[in-house]
Design goal:
heterodimer, A: 391 residues, alpha/beta, Aspartate Aminotransferase, domain 1, Aspartate Aminotransferase, domain 2, three-stranded antiparallel beta sheet, 13 helices, B: 167 residues, alpha+beta, Alpha-Beta Plaits, 2 domains, four-stranded antiparallel beta sheet, two-stranded antiparallel ribbon, AsnC family transcriptional regulator (chain B), Tscrpt_reg_AsnC-like (chain B), DNA-binding transcription factor activity (chain B), Dimeric_a/b-barrel (chain B)
């Protein structure tokens, strides 16, 4: 190819590559690394779930399912959402089984956005929101939250960001990377704004199962909000099924059917064996989820208190499995801190700026790893801070 | 006895972690003070709720320490007034006996014995166990391989299969 003409789409060319890639490459060749850099559970999928997928293969369930997913699975999802979160969706017309929550997010955005429509993204945020909005033709409008506010969005911040082109807000609670969980009252405040300006809310509830200190409130359960909520969830985090790539999206019929149109052309259906696994997870996996949740909570308590003790101030995250400590005491940037910590102490964390500018000065540490490794990681971080404490 | 939520929390932490976990770390995990954790541990030890801090050892990996384990189904004649308890006591007092359970079903007591060799176990069964007055019969099963013991899988590939950094 001569240098004059690019065959790539301008949108894609202008898309920033994920900053996580560089750290992955840096850490990949090293031995003895303790990784706090992973956005997934350390538990492997419960055996009963894996076994159900194997059985489905043995029985020959290797063909397509309905576009929206196995009806039996959608019925189980409807029951689960009702029982766990008090929201009711019709398995016939309001639930779509997707290839991970990521695909759910993609088809949601593509179903609702016209070129130039604005979508509010609250930072620090999961790395995919901004690029996916852009790819769907929308314009991401980023709002930066502050550590002083526990990385929570203030209602006035939200209102200030709304324009005539604003179509939707993406919410993620508990949040990746901060672990911050919004209370029912805080969600209510957002709901009022959504109502006032007639906005949709894409509620990414993938970490809903991992709320440690208080009851989880699904955005769709707030009065009058179901009709403007696209609820995205899945099995990856709570059920420890990241590699299965299985999620789902619940939305009012009109939006749901629009998403299904995209889904049927672009994906056909989610993988059949993964759907059978998810079915088993919903039928019998509740106690596994409870056990994992207890374990994460104890590790969170240990890890966050220990971080504060060795000198990295960190708020107590209400959910997910991330701690988001400030590293400002070292005088290093997030990237410098993460790179030095990896090279000098062999502990991998993710620099906060990857999740948006407001993440600068912080790093994301996943505590989804064994207690023994967390204890060792704290030792190494403490040693590191002794070398790098700002005078 | 009725335990508090924090007492149960401490027990669960001990059950699911290494016996060597420092008290300070237990305190952090349960979100209580070190002093309170120590009080809870003392109380639970005193009440024999917390019986022992154990380690799980795979002796089969240690040369010269392989040993043998047998599970013995024992049928006994219970005695008026003391039922199975008296004969159970006579059995569990032998140091070779690791566990004794009263069972429902085809036999009465399940006895787990550890010995250095098959001969040693055989001798114990024929000389000590079968000769007890209330013992009617014994069936001895030798354990060939331990896959999982007390919730711990012995031969497991523990490698973390996750990529090092992911979003």
């Amino acid at each position: 190819m001569k240098g004059t003409k690019s065959y790539l789409s301008k949108t894609v060319e202008e898309l920033k590559p994920s900053g996580i890639r560089r750290f992955f490459d840096l850490a990949a060749g090293m031995e003895g690394v303790i990784s706090l850099g992973v956005g997934e559970p350390d538990f492997i999928t419960p055996w009963s779930v894996r076994e159900a997928a194997i059985l489905s293969l043995e029985q020959g369930y290797t063909s397509y399912t309905a576009n929206a997913g196995l009806m039996e699975l959608r019925e189980e999802i409807a029951g689960y959402m009702q029982k766990s979160f008090g929201v009711s969706y019709s398995p016939q017309s309001e639930i779509t089984v997707t290839v991970g929550a990521s695909q759910a997010l993609d088809i949601s955005l593509r179903a609702i956005l016209d070129p130039g429509d604005e979508v509010i993204v609250i930072e620090p945020s999961f790395v995919s929101y901004v690029p996916l909005v852009t790819l769907a033709g929308g314009v991401p409008v980023q709002i930066q939250t502050l550590k002083e506010n526990g990385f929570k969005i203030l209602p006035e911040q939200l209102e200030n960001a709304i324009t005539r082109r604003t179509k939707a807000i993406i919410l993620c609670s508990p949040n990746n990377p901060t672990g911050t969980m919004l209370t029912g009252d805080e969600l209510n405040a957002i709901a009022q704004i959504a109502e006032k300006y007639d906005l949709l809310v894409l509620s990414d509830e993938i970490y809903a199962e991992l709320a440690y200190d208080s009851e989880y409130t699904s955005f769709a359960s707030i009065r009058e909000m179901k009709k403007r909520t696209i609820l995205i969830s899945g099995f990856s985090k709570g059920f420890a099924m990241t590699g299965w790539r299985l999620g789902f999206v619940c939305a009012p019929e009109e939006i749901s059917q629009a998403m299904l149109k995209i889904h049927q052309y672009a994906m056909m259906c989610a993988p059949t064996m993964a759907q059978f696994a998810a079915l088993e997870a919903l039928k019998t996996g509740r106690s596994d989820v409870e056990g994992m949740k207890k374990s994460y909570k104890r590790r969170r308590n240990y890890f966050v208190q220990s971080l504060n003790e060795v000198g990295l101030t960190c708020h107590m995250p209400g959910g997910a499995f991330y701690a988001f400590p400030s590293i400002k005491c070292t005088g290093l940037s997030s990237e410098e801190f993460a790179e030095k910590l990896l090279l000098e102490e062999k502990v991998a964390v993710v620099p906060g700026n990857i999740f948006g500018e407001s993440g600068e000065g912080h790093v994301r540490c996943s505590y989804a790893t064994s207690m023994e490794l967390l204890q060792e990681a704290i030792k190494r971080i403490s040693h590191f801070l002794n070398q790098h404490q700002k005078a | 006895m009725k335990l508090t939520e924090k007492q149960i929390e401490v027990l669960e932490i001990l059950e699911n972690n290494s016996a060597r976990i420092p008290v300070e770390d237990i305190a952090k995990m349960a979100q209580i003070s070190v002093a309170e954790t120590e009080t809870i541990l003392d109380k639970l030890e005193e009440k024999k709720v917390l019986v022992r801090y154990n380690s799980v050892i795979d002796w089969s990996k240690v040369d010269g320490h392989e040993g043998v384990t047998a599970m013995i189904d024992v049928k006994v004649a219970p005695k008026r007034g003391v039922g199975f308890d008296e004969v159970a006591q006579r059995i569990y007092r032998f140091k070779e006996v690791r566990s004794v359970y009263l069972m429902s079903g085809a036999y009465d007591l399940s006895v787990i014995i550890e010995g250095r060799s098959m001969n040693e176990v055989a001798r114990f069964v024929s000389e000590k166990l079968s000769t007890l007055d209330s013992v009617l019969s014994t069936t001895t099963h030798f354990i060939l391989k331990k896959y999982k013991h007390d919730g711990t899988i012995f031969e497991q590939n523990e490698d973390d299969k996750r990529i090092v950094v992911s979003p």
